[in-house]
Structures
1.
Amino acid sequence: MANQRKSIRKKKLGNYPHAMVVFSITLALFVIGVFGLLLIHAHTLSENVKESIEMQVYLDRDLSEVQLARMQKSFAAKEYVAYKADTAQVRFVSKDEAAKLLLNETNEDFLTLLGENPLRDAYVLRIDADHAGTPELKSIKLDLQDTDGVYEVQYVESLIQSINSNLQKISIILLGFAAILVLVVIILINNTIKLALYSQRFLIRSMQLVGATSYFIQRPFLNRATWQGIVSGLIASALLFALMQYAYHEITELQLLRNDEQTYLLMGALVVIGCVIGFLSSYRSVRKYLRMSLDELY
């Protein structure tokens, strides 16, 4: 009696060993999730590097306090100025403060030698990451130079060009790897489900022979594959979250690159990817066996 029940369970439509399928899909989604985390942290690092770009705006001499305040307000209103905690990243550096900094760096008392302070008051502007490209920075420099009271605008152009060029190359390489990895994951999940459904090919044919419609045959397989994709996505997301928390605990510097919003979007994407690929792979495989002749099934 027990053997008979066991046999019936084995022959139940769509009832193939799902633990192996869930494990394989989870592993594939976890790998793509890890690479997705790498992309998120690389993007955040790129944004931080770009937002560290500063422009020194040197001012005319003998400007009044009112003129200085008006200029600071004008700079803060520029769309290309970075903001942090709703505060414009505009910093005033007086010529006396600049002289002290230079004296500490060089250990040479140039004030005594020259008899006066040749430096100028300046505003240091931190540029928003979206405007940190080489062409945009040149336009920003020209815009700042047209401001009344500005003597000269400087930034380390060669260094910034090198940074932008390297960041662009790294982004292209990472996106290329991401595209290849996604393709490999899709193929892996598709093949896993095809192998799982291979054992069901004769049952599918038997259901056809007794008059079952294609929809009736496909429905349990599609439901099972969809739930497998969802469960696999949730497990992969949980593993990814655990890995992320462990990495943040062990390497505290990674907290600076943390982006919870994009990370949660990535986890949601893993669930969607698992669900969609599972459904489509199962749909294609079942339709393939439905169209095969009996000789082709062997």
2.
Amino acid sequence: MCGRFSQHYTWEQIQAFSQPLTLATGQGNLQPHYNIAPTTNIHMIVPAEGGRELRSARWGLIPFWFKGASPKEFKFATFNARVEDFDQKSSFKSAYKSRRCVIPASGFFEWTGPKTDRTPHYFSAADGDLLAIAGLWERWKSPAGEDVTSCTMVVRDADEWTARYHDRMPSFLQPDDFDTWLSGSAGKELLRKTPPKLQEWVVGKKVNKTGAGDNDPTTIAPDLPRPDTPL
């Protein structure tokens, strides 16, 4: 699964990545986030008139049929949707048919080692570009009239390289796939294509705590041993 990732980019980068945004460069809040956890707001790209739009959405999809009074009452873990069965799950199948998105990611985290001493690893594109994660999004309205936009990442079985660290990974899209994914014309086969080449390094353990270092770029810096630390 993917339970932590980062989004940090300039307007020029996200404008080019989105092919293109209809929102003019320089508008909106692009505060960088280096340790994003579920239930926080993230950026997603959705179709818009004349192009595409960057929107904010809660990471953790709330289905339209939820009867609770607030998002805090929704207790299911819907920040990931498994490619094997999301089209059969009541939380995701409506969004799959008509509300798809692309989630831009600068990188994502996975952990190895025993539960008592987990080692965090950071993964990013080997060429330094942004990663495009396939996503689904939904609108939910509370009984009091509160509108909440939320989303989920699609995840798949890991490729051979990533499986050294975890048995699951995000379902990545290539730039040429954006149109067919967002329009709904592509099926799930698109989400099992060869992923982009990734790079990986160990980072400091402060990322093990939800939200720690979210505004600090050193959160994703390689955790190099001290000179007096045996290798």
